[in-house]
Specification:
- With 768 residues, the protein is of the alpha+beta class.
- The protein folds into five domains: 70 residues; 135 residues, Four Helix Bundle (Hemerythrin (Met), subunit A) (Up-down Bundle); 163 residues, 2-Layer Sandwich (Beta-Lactamase); 97 residues; 167 residues, Heat Shock Protein 90, CATH 3.30.565.10.
- It is built from 22 helices and 13 strands.
- The strands form three sheets. It has a six-stranded antiparallel beta sheet with strand order 3-2-1-6-5-4, with helices on both faces. Strands 8-10-11-13-12 form a five-stranded mixed beta sheet.
- A hairpin with a 5-residue loop joins strand 12 and strand 13.
- It is elongated.
């Protein structure tokens, strides 16, 4: 037992290594045993490998730390070496206490000075005490061995005998002045004891040197052996890392390469390629998911191709429905198209019509119980078209009661459609044996509605394959198309009769409007004439009274008389404005090509010449204005009103400046801008100013009747344009209006001639 303990002490590193390797081998064996017969994920395997690596490197770290603790300066090995060297330094050269004491004795022999002699004697005593203290330290701190015994026993005896001779004999002889005997003692007995002590010290030094050499050799051997072990551990660690890398390559890289190869195959159009699935882990699941994705992609492409084919054929069907034919023929075209486009077993369309077979042998009229009892004897569903397996429109299904069976329930239900892909088990399909016998899988029915949302029929089909959601959407769209076809075709005759009646009513209404307009013009003229006559008398007689009573009436009466005359004059102006507005609304001259530059020049020289001179107004036209197709008289009146307003509504002391510009507008029109530097218009009033009698200022501020801009608006509209204003209060206004450009119609095309317009009007009447 002691021998094993000794071997472990001498080979602790090797024992620790064997113990660690045994633990690793046992751990690996346990891991493989746990994985045997199990499907483990890559994460689990990597986790276990990580645990193994962590255990191994923990072992390496502990072993390295233990080695470092042994060989570092305060480690067990170096500690012994350092202690030996410290002890050697402590006693070499032969203890300074003895050397100094002997030298002190010799120096005492050579001095005759009493004070110096006393100093040397005190020094000798001090050295003795120091040696005693050191001896006690060695005795207490050093471990028991031969070196300690030599140090505190063998070398101690002659040293103490030396100090005894010095203290008891030598120092008293010196103090007595007997230097001869003191010298004989110093070179005799004291020297002998000194030499004995020195020989013991030399022996101890030799023993320390030998022991230190042994410790150093053992330390070097341990460092070398543990270095070799650490290299061995590193090789093992790299091997484990290599195994882990190989595992990663096998379990990850190779499957990923297979998936990349699959992606490249798909990019080349090979949708049938499947990624191999070799590993039973997440990579196998990934490969399976990839293969499932390619399979779904193939199915999706097939569905899309089928859907695109359906759309193309449905477009062809819609074109076929545009051909002129009766309702029955178009319904048959629809059912034929459903069978062809959607691969249906058969398709049918029923329309709601008055009941006609109730007394002529209709099987449903005879039923008194069950789901087929006819509850509505005034109308029912008539089979109008059938294609596919069944092409006849007679038999038991030629009439379906409203609210009975699946077709009648669709017609009376709240849902627009009914779809099932399990026709053999659906309760609304009443004959399940018949469905199974024919191998039918799906049924779809769609209500047909008119523009008022009322049911007019049902479109239905049976198929031997499921109806997808995409096909359902297409069928629903076809049902809407069928509704439009049915309504348009059924209403064809009614539309033609309505057009003929409409043409006659338009002619009659046009004649009535012409007569009414003529009567309105006469009434306006007569009313304005009859109203102006008494107003002229009021104004004339009022002026005469004002002259005759000048200076004879007081201020209030004179002011009231002025109010009366001014009111009559303003009423006359308003009547004249109304008459002008009436002329614009009722009288329309033919359009002519007008040069706006000529009209502005004429206004400068004639109508506006006096006002321009009084106001010192300038009219600036940066670029020539275009020619327009308008009524020249009304456009002259329009420009005169807008330019006059620009000069009227000015701040006091401000010189009016009018600028007229133009630019193209949409639909063959041109926009004319008349900009002034007047008082401007607030945004909230910019629309109201074109309303008749709408004034923004009192008559004391600015004269006017509130009719001028309304007349301008009517003139522009009568010539096919629009008018508006852009203004910032206090900074002027820009009144703009649009007019037809000369030689261009509203669509931006050259204007038609009179003969072309007549022909176009006749064609339109024919279409109506």
């Amino acid at each position: 037992m002691n021998s094993i303990y000794t071997w472990l002490q001498n080979n602790i590193g090797l024992a620790f290594l064997l113990y660690g390797l045994a633990l690793i081998v046992i751990g690996v064996a346990i891991l493989f045993w746990l994985e045997k017969g199990k499907t483990l994920s890559i994460r689990t395997r990597l986790f276990r490998i990580g645990l193994m690596m962590a255990a191994f490197f923990t072992f390496v770290a502990v072993y390295s730390l233990q080695t470092l603790n042994m060989v570092k300066v305060n480690g067990t090995m170096y500690k012994q070496i350092v202690q030996g060297k410290d002890l050697m330094a402590d006693i070499l050269p032969p203890p300074e206490y003895i050397i100094e004491s002997y030298l002190t004795a010799l120096e005492t022999l050579g001095t005759n000075n009493v004070d110096m002699m006393n100093i040397q004697i005190e020094k000798s005593e001090s050295l003795f005490r120091n040696y005693q203290d050191k001896h006690k330290f060695w005795k207490a701190s050093l471990k028991e061995d031969k070196i300690k015994n030599e140090l505190i026993e063998t070398s101690y005896r002659p040293a103490m005998e030396f100090y005894k001779l010095a203290r008891e004999k030598f120092i008293p002889l010196i103090k007595a002045g007997n230097k001869t005997e003191a010298r004989n003692l110093a070179y005799g007995a004291m020297r002998e004891k000194y030499e004995q002590h020195r020989m013991a010290i030399d022996n101890i030094v030799g023993m320390l040197g030998s022991r230190n050499s042994d410790y150093e050799s053992r330390t070097a051997m341990i460092i070398r052996s543990r270095t070799i072990m650490m290299v061995f551990f590193s090789i093992i660690g790299l091997s484990i890392l290599g195994i882990a890398l190989y595992f990663i390559i096998v379990c990850l890289v190779k499957p990923v390469k297979n998936i990349v190869a699959g992606i490249n195959e798909i990019r080349r159009g090979n949708l049938d390629y499947e990624v191999p699935m070799s590993q039973d882990n997440e990579m196998r699941e990934l490969a399976g998911a990839f293969n499932k994705m390619t399979s779904d992609l193939r199915q999706e492409i097939k569905k899309r191709e089928k859907s695109e084919s359906c759309v193309v054929r449905l477009n062809d069907l819609r074109e076929a429905l545009m051909r002129p034919c009766g309702v029955s023929d178009k319904l048959r075209i629809i059912t034929d198209g459903i069978v062809s486009v959607f691969d249906a077993d058969f398709a049918r369309i029923w329309m709601i019509r008055p009941a006609d077979l109730c007394q002529k042998g209709c099987v449903h009229a005879k039923n008194t119980e069950g789901p087929g009892v006819c509850r509505h004897r005034d109308f029912c569903l008539h089979l109008m078209a059938s294609s596919g397996r069944y092409t006849h429109i007679n038999g038991d299904h030629q009439r379906v009661p409203f609210g009975c069976y699946k077709i009648g329930l669709i017609a009376s239900g709240e849902d627009k459609k009914f779809l099932t892909n399990d026709a053999a088990n659906n309760p609304r399909v009443h004959n399940h044996e018949w469905v199974r016998e024919l191998g039918l899988v799906s049924f779809a029915g769609y209500r047909l509605l008119n523009s008022a949302g009322e049911v007019i029929g049902v479109m239905a089909l049976f198929s031997k394959h499921p109806i997808s959601s995409e096909e359902d959407e297409l069928l629903l769209g076809l049902a809407h198309t069928s509704e439009q076809v049915i309504m348009a075709t059924s209403a064809g005759t009614e539309v033609r009769l309505l057009n003929e009646s409409l043409e006659k009513r338009v002619e009659e209404r046009t004649a009535q409007l012409a007569a009414t307009n003529e009567e309105l013009k006469n009434f306006v003229y007569i009313a304005s004439h009859d109203l102006r006559e008494p107003l002229r008398k009021i104004s004339a007689f009022g002026s005469m009274v004002q002259k005759s009573l000048s200076g004879k009436i007081d201020g209030d009466d004179a002011e009231n008389l002025n109010f009366m005359i001014d009111g009559a004059n303003r009423m006359t102006q308003m009547i004249e404005g109304l008459l002008a507005y009436s002329r614009v609304s009722s009288k329309a001259n033919s359009a002519e090509t007008v040069n706006l530059n000529d009209i502005v020049d004429q206004l400068r020289q004639l109508e506006l010449s006096v006002l321009l001179e009084e106001k010192h107004t300038t009219i600036d036209i940066p670029q020539p204005l275009p020619e327009v197709d308008v009524d020249p008289v009304r456009i002259r009146q329009l420009l005169q009103n807008l330019i006059a307003n620009g000069m009227k509504y000015q701040a006091k002391g401000n010189t009016p400046q009018i600028t007229i510009t133009s630019r193209p507008a949409a639909d063959g029109m041109v926009r004319i801008n008349i900009t002034d530097n007047g008082i401007g218009i607030k945004p909230e009033f910019q629309q109201a100013i074109f309303i008749m009698f709408k004034r923004l200022h009192s008559k004391n501020e600015y004269e006017g009747t509130g009719i001028g801009l309304a007349v301008c608006k009517k003139i522009v509209e009568r010539n096919g344009g629009q008018i508006g204003v852009e203004s910032e209060f206090g900074k002027g206004s820009t009144f703009w209006f649009t007019l037809p450009t000369a030689g261009v119609n509203k669509a931006g095309q050259p204007a038609k001639t009179e003969n072309e317009l007549v022909v176009s009007t006749k064609d339109n009447n024919k279409q109506l």
